[in-house]
Amino acid sequence: MLNKGLRRVVMPSMYVQGAGAIDDIGTYSSALGDKPFAVAGKTAFSTIGPRLEASLSRAGSNLVGVNDSIKECTFGMIESVKAESLDAGADVILGCGGGKAVDTAKAAADELGLPVITVPTQCATNADQMADAVVFNEDHEFVEDHYLSRAPALVLVDTEVVGFAPVEFLVQGMGDALASGFEKPAYARALAAKGPDNLASSAAVEVNLRCLSVLLEHGASAKQASQTTVMSESLELVIEAVKLMSGFGFGGGGCAAAHAIHNGLTSVPGVSRKHGEIVAFGTMVQMMLEERPASEIEQIMQWCMEIGLPTSLDELGDIDRSRLPLAAKKACDPEDTMSNMPFEVTPEMVLESIRGVDSLSESLVRTRATSLR
Ligand SMILES: [Zn+2]
After folding, report:
1. DSSP classification of residue 158
2. Residue 96: closest CA among 140, 144, 63, 145
3. Ligand 1 centre and the CA of 279: distance in Å?
4. Is 218 an active-site residue?
5. What stretch of H or E contains 65?
6. Over the Cα atoms of the chain, what is R_g?
């Protein structure tokens, strides 16, 4: 039957990736404005600031201001950056660093109606290309996923900067991106079932599935390249999978069970893993919820074990297991992205699937140990 919904695609206007790409930022930035204002974290700006300024200066557009004190993306910080860039007469915003600086820059630019260029310095997130900002309060508690009117004008990824940052960032980024191959198709099916407003384009779904196959094929080799700081085609491909493919076409939306399970699990005392690592675990839980074949779940689990992503509850931290039912309930909060699943999910189903992943992990570890004997 014909679904009359609109096929909506939200993406950055331009994406540039490669070794040394930062040295060209002046050329791209001056095409958008000649009064750039930089927003960054302290470490990120001390790492790339001099190269960024040199490139801008070669293109004849020097920074009109810098805020390199971003530690958290809060509404207060977004307001400060807005006021500072307005005072400085900025006409283009450069967001440099990890997700927090980039999100602050995107949100401030969106409200000012200015173009934003994002320049990531690590690979733990795909925030650089998304049309949203994850906002926290001063106590680092999640406030909201703030949707923006558009995605960045340019995402500039220097693969030597991002790929040779501490390897745990790449591992976390791969864990987060892993979810896209499962969440985006689920979300697309849910949109189609809900109708009649918005649909995912088939291109967006295909690219997110391609992201998954790149991770499975090149993840381990990319990790090795990052550890040995030797650039390789696998590392380039995996960075592209995380930075471009994992959110392709979905703007700020497209999450489903894996992220909702992440959000539930972060409420459990003792969980000590980072966002992307918990999302990887949540992805396997989503696969269980979807009743995928055991061989498919095992394939993803073996890959996670090889990459160093958690596959069992013990690996998530020294957790209080009595809180798991509450976490499962939180994961099914109607406000959260579990509602983007194409079928109804109950807390009981989540709890059972979490335990299912945990026991599958245990049996895989046992099988490995036996085969090594
Ligand atoms: Zn994520």
Report:
1. E
2. 63
3. 7
4. no
5. strand 65-67
6. 21
**CA–CA distance, 68 with 232 (Å, rounded to integer):** 31
The letter for the amino acid at 27 is: T
Amino acid (one-letter) located at 116: V
As annotated, the residues of the chain forming the CATH 1.20.1090.10 domain(s) are 168-372
Which pair of tokens denotes residue 253? 């939306």
CATH architecture classification, 14-165: 3-Layer(aba) Sandwich (3.40)
The class level of CATH for 168-372 reads mainly alpha
Q: What is the pLDDT of residues 21-40, one digit of tens each?
A: 999 999 999 999 999 999 99
Q: What is the tens place of the pLDDT at every residue in 40-59?
A: 999 999 999 999 999 999 99
Band (pLDDT 50/70/90 cuts) for residue 1 is low
Q: Which residues contact 189 (CB under 8 A, 6 or more apart)?
A: 342
Q: Which of 132, 158, 218, 275 is catalytic?
A: 275
DSSP of 89-149: T-SEEEEEESHHHHHHHHHHHHHHT--EEEEESSSS--GGG-SEEEEE-TTS-EEEEEE-S
| Residues 248-289: tens digit of each pLDDT | 998 888 999 999 999 999 999 999 999 999 999 999 999 999
Within the chain, all domains assigned CATH 3.40.50.1970 are found at: 14-165
- Catalytic site residue 275? yes
A 10 A CB-CB count for 320 gives: 13
Alpha helices (H) along 20-98: 25-32, 42-58, 75-87
């991770």: which residue's tokens?
A: 215
259 alpha carbon to ligand 1 midpoint, in Å? Answer: 6
Q: What is the CA(125)–ligand 1 centre distance, in A?
A: 7
- Catalytic residue, candidates 110, 158, 176, 358: 176
Taking a C-beta distance cutoff of 8 angstroms, is the pair 38, 68 a contact?
Answer: yes
Relative to beta strand 154-158, strand 14-18 is parallel
Hey, is 18 helix, strand or coil? strand
